[in-house]
Amino acid sequence: MTSCQKRMRELSRVIGSVTTDHEISISKGNHIQVVIRCGEEQRKLFSGKTPSDHRSLMNFKSSVKRAYQEMGGPKEPRF
């Protein structure tokens, strides 16, 4: 298993704790692109293929939480 596959699996687990309506793919710029949806709204978030530091996953988790709340999702997601 490559580091990219491992990273995508970790991101899927984090996003799945907030919403089940999401897509994960590789962007043209060779980053991981995540699309989360809440009702009719959707938001694109990007992450590096490999973690740059030990906090990168936690920082992405807070970005997902913030974006989901801005779209009108529950204030307390299921982390």
Summary keywords:
79 residues; 2 helices; globular; alpha+beta; 3 strands
Task: Describe the model.
It is a single chain. The chain is α+β, with helices and mostly antiparallel strands. About 35% of the residues lie in helices and about 25% in strands. The protein has two helices and three strands, in the order H-E-E-E-H. It has helices at about 5-15, 55-70, and strands at about 20-25, 30-40, 40-45. A three-stranded antiparallel beta sheet has the order 1-2-3, covered by helices on one side. A hairpin with a 5-residue loop joins strand 1 (about 20-25) and strand 2. Helix 1 packs parallel to helix 2 (about 55-70). The N and C termini lie far apart (about 25 Å).
Q: What is the secondary structure topology, with strand pairs?
A:
Blueprint: H1 3-16, E1 22-26, E2 32-38, E3 41-47, H2 56-70
Antiparallel strand pairs: 1-2, 2-3
Helix pairs in contact: 1-2
Numbering strands along the chain, what is their spatial order in the largest sheet?
1-2-3
Helix content: 25-40%
Our estimate of the beta-strand percent is 15-25%
Shape: globular
